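INFO batch 0412 | record 1 of 1 | parsing
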Amino acid sequence: MAVKLDPIAEFREDHRKVRDGILEITDALKEKDVQKAREILGQLNVLVGPHFRYEEEHLYPALRTFLGEYVDQLIKEHNNVIDTAKVCASLLSRDSLTDKESEEAAKAAMQLLIHVSNCDGLAILSERLSSKEMDRLAESYAEARTKGVPLLEWADTIRKK
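INFO prediction complete | emitting tokens
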């Protein structure tokens, strides 16, 4: 029998990885190390796709009981993250960046930390869900990870608009 994941622990660990990735990509952008920034963005794209999918398809609906319409704000934040990731991917498809481009991309990346911080607070609300709901969330999280659709692909092909 497979070990059931702890959705709260996994959720928080994802946030730590994203936080660290954002800080690393910001440093790479400031140094105009396009190759390193591109690699980090690729890693974040793979990590965040299943995470966002889990949040929007399962966690946010479950937390609507506590948060009501604030869930809609979280989805808007996801829209901003996706838009920022697309801009960064476009910039990083080039061989080099101007000083202005690297500075703007670094600032945009740092803005994503706000969402990571806000979103991590949802873990404390998740603790109040029933064990049955937590089991469903664990299965949903595992399924999203198994499917492993990267963020930008998920946003363009699967995500409900």
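INFO post-check: The chain has one domain: 7-157.
INFO record closed
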